TrEMBL record:
Keywords: DNA-binding, Nucleus. One of its GO terms (molecular function) is DNA binding. GO terms for cellular component: nucleus. This is Uncharacterized protein. Coiled coil: none annotated. Its main location: nucleus. It is found in: Nucleus.
Length: 475
């Protein structure tokens, strides 16, 4: 009985695996790569990914829309039920959560009100162009209650707007939109590998690198690492991308008054996150320029190797973009299978890795080996020549995943790439030089000195045996 029940389940899983593969072929990036290939582009697919991310938001949205149209058509053709669509989270296979957010925002979806009355009060005062708004803490209880009621009404209106907005969407997209807006906010508590809730480590504990550092750079780090003082933290805070954007957008007279620094920083992050990726990246580069000036004006930070980049750029994506702007090469696939899958997806081939002959697999392996060798050479040049200082290199290894592993592999490849014949000659000359420096006569002299000292009979026997072994192996 158990076997009969498991067969349909396995069959369904196989069907949905195939559907998932077809959905992946509809992804925006895949559509972009296919279009470039049709134009005759021979650019590496990993470089095309970077090119896609550099497109304007408007152009990316066009690819999102094409992707969704193909997605809906595919599910209709396969007769996939809407409930199954949600349960299997098929839309998340097509678009990432960030892409979903961008897409719905581009459709002028209702904007969710802030979560607290304090933030709502600040937004209202900004819209009223109030040059000197009263601070929240100075309001009376009745005045605060007034804004609390306004926020409650705004949230009610937001729910009504969601309902009206969703009614004009296709059924398959409607359920995805409603699922998107009802998705809970990211909690401060995260689940560990065992599924247990755990709080993130405070910044003081996150100062140490979560990424490994190469052995030749570990000597530069200090286990008892110092921290930034308050003056240094304030100076670094002024270099952050969101702060630079806020100060440029608002003059001193236009800037709002906040109840505390936390409320102000939350507001600054909120308006910065509403920018397009292109504009965010622009301020990220401005921020890193200010960071370089900060390091020059605070030499003790560099001398004591105090990490600061993770405090400057809160998101790993921003840090990666910064090093990419300096010339960090694109990381190759980890295996020949992944290389084959990338190319198969570009050509919409139905062939599987297991269908290939061994000679064809060997060709992919050789090609990947060449790609990795070129990557390691470029990676070494980037680390040793492009990165301006040991401090920046340490920040690079601290924050970029796989950087230390790739560096050590690249150094090993550089050593292995030396001429084997020349290496053997060098080793032979070294051995010969050692032998000439320590001839047998020198050993006999030392042996005689040992025998003239106060040794036990057992020790004398051992010295003589060493002499016999020495003569047999060298003479």
């Amino acid at each position: 009985m158990t076997k009969k029940k498991s067969q349909p389940e396995n069959s369904n899983n196989l069907i949905f695996e195939r559907v998932a593969e077809e959905i992946k072929s509809c992804r925006p990036l895949r559509l972009f790569i296919n279009k470039q290939k049709k134009k005759g582009s021979h650019i590496n697919p990993f470089a095309l990914r970077s090119k896609f991310l550099q497109l304007s938001s408007e152009k990316q949205i066009k690819y999102y829309q094409k992707s969704i149209d193909k997605f809906i058509q595919l599910l209709d053709d396969k007769d996939i039920d809407v409930n199954v669509q949600i349960e299997r989270k098929l839309f998340e296979i097509l678009l990432t959560k960030i892409e979903q957010k961008k897409y719905f925002e581009s459709m002028s979806a209702p904007i969710k009100p802030v979560s607290t009355a304090v933030g709502y009060y600040a937004e209202i005062k900004k819209q009223e162009n109030d040059d000197n708004p009263k601070a929240w803490k100075l309001l009376s209880a009745d005045e605060k209650k007034h804004y609390t009621n306004l926020l409650r009404n705004a949230k009610y209106d937001y729910n009504s707007q969601i309902k009206h907005f969703s009614e004009n969407l296709p059924e398959r997209l409607k359920v995805e939109y409603l699922s998107f807006v009802k998705r809970p906010r990211t909690s401060a508590h995260v689940k560990d590998m065992n599924g247990e809730n755990s709080s993130p480590a405070p910044i003081s504990q996150r100062r140490k690198s979560v990424q490994p550092i190469p052995e030749n750079f570990q000597a530069l780090t200090d286990d008892a690492q110092q921290k930034l003082n308050r003056i240094q933290l304030d100076a670094l805070h002024k270099c952050k991308p969101d702060v630079l954007y806020y100060e440029k957008k608002n003059s001193d007279d236009d800037q709002l008054t906040f109840i505390n620094t936390t409320a102000k920083n939350t507001y600054i992050r909120t308006i910065f996150n509403q920018l397009s990726e292109k504009k965010k990246h622009k301020f990220v580069l401005k921020s890193t320029k200010k960071w370089e000036e900060f390091l020059q004006s605070h030499p003790t930070v560099v001398e004591n190797q105090i990490p600061t980049l993770h405090l400057l750029l809160a998101k790993k994506d921003y840090i990666h973009y910064y090093f990419t702007s300096l010339g960090l090469p694109e990381r190759p696939p980890t295996s020949a299978l992944f290389l084959f899958n990338h190319e198969r997806q570009e050509t919409d081939s139905q062939q599987n890795w297991t269908d290939l002959s061994q000679s064809t697999k060997d060709e992919f392996i050789k090609r990947l080996s060449k790609i990795k060798l070129d990557y390691h050479q470029n990676f070494l040049e980037f680390v040793e020549k492009t990165l301006p200082s040991d401090y920046v290199r340490l920040e690079f290894f601290r924050n970029i995943k796989h950087a230390a592993k790739d560096y050590e592999t690249a150094v090993k490849d550089r050593v292995d790439a030396k001429d084997d014949g020349q290496l053997k000659i060098t080793q032979y000359l070294v051995k010969k030089q050692i032998i000439e420096v320590t001839p047998v006569s020198e050993f006999d002299r030392i042996k005689q000195q040992l025998l003239n000292t106060d040794l036990t009979d057992e020790q004398r026997k051992l010295v003589r045996r060493l002499g016999i072994i020495m003569h047999k192996n060298i003479c």
